[in-house]
Write a structure and sequence with these properties.
alpha/beta, 7 strands, single chain, about 45% helix, Rossmann fold, 8 helices
Length: about 250
């Protein structure tokens, strides 16, 4: 088991990519904190993990990733329950509906940057002291192909993911001397609740059009992203830091 005796916090784990990540981590022996703002979804995911992998595998902690006090409490809960923290996955993210940049409301711009960028800083400031205590660790930030190959209609979202990628690379350099590896995942759009937001409308026609832009001919799945996250979190990637890993079926080529 590649993550045996490790402890991870995964934000936005009540559905989509985050749910896939906590399931994959648990399969590899990891104890996980399932975080989400949606208590119903998060509790359901944590209960399923405990049912499938044994009681005590997972706990649910409801927290808004933009709320400093709530994130601090979440990290402390993880350490109190499991005794340590090894892995932080900043997966929670939001987007505006596909639209012209000038039509995006200002409050939505602020919210996107708070969730997709500032929340990484908030989580890091509370998690890194605990990673230091165990001699290092791993931070994975869920960015997007939108931060590498931006297209019209999602300009503000694209900018937030570009910022997340740059933040990842800078963190990687800053914390490397402490054996804290920081990487980003850049998924292409997949089977998650955000899909309709990216497309404007989730229709068979729009799906076919999007699939046609992916050389491997399909959307991403939570399992695709989870497998990539597992690699980056494991010792198999012990010499990998500062990368923005494209999990995109070739879309960024």
């Amino acid at each position: 088991m590649r993550l045996k005796d490790k402890v991870a916090i995964v934000t936005g784990a009540g559905s989509g990519f985050g749910e896939g990540i906590v399931e994959r981590f648990a399969e590899e022996g990891c104890k996980v904190v399932v975080n989400d703002v949606n208590a119903e979804n998060g509790k359901k995911v944590a209960a399923a993990l405990n049912a499938h992998h044994g009681d005590g595998t997972a706990i649910f902690v409801q927290a808004d990733v933009t709320d400093d006090a709530a994130v601090k409490a979440m990290v402390e809960t993880a350490v109190d329950r499991f005794g340590r923290l090894d892995i932080l996955v900043n997966n929670a993210g939001i987007s505006h509906v596909n639209m012209p940049m000038l039509d995006v409301p200002e409050e939505m711009v602020d919210k996107i940057f708070d969730v997709n960028v500032k929340a990484i800083w908030i989580a890091a400031r509370h998690a890194i002291p605990h990673l230091r205590k165990v001699g290092g660790g791993v931070i994975i930030n869920n960015a997007s192909t939108a931060g590498l190959r931006p297209r019209p209609g999602l300009t503000v979202y694209n900018a937030s993911k570009g910022a997340a990628i740059t933040l990842t690379k800078s963190m990687a350099v800053e914390f490397a001397p402490e054996n804290i590896r920081v990487n980003a995942l850049c998924p292409v759009a997949g089977e998650t609740p955000l899909l309709a937001t990216f497309m404007g409308a989730d229709t068979p026609e729009n799906r076919a059009k999007f699939r046609a832009s992916v050389p491997l001919g399909r959307l991403s799945t939570p399992r695709d992203i989870a497998n990539a996250a597992l690699y980056l979190a494991s010792d198999d990637a012990a010499f990998i830091t500062g990368v923005a890993l494209e999990v995109d079926g070739g879309r960024c080529v």
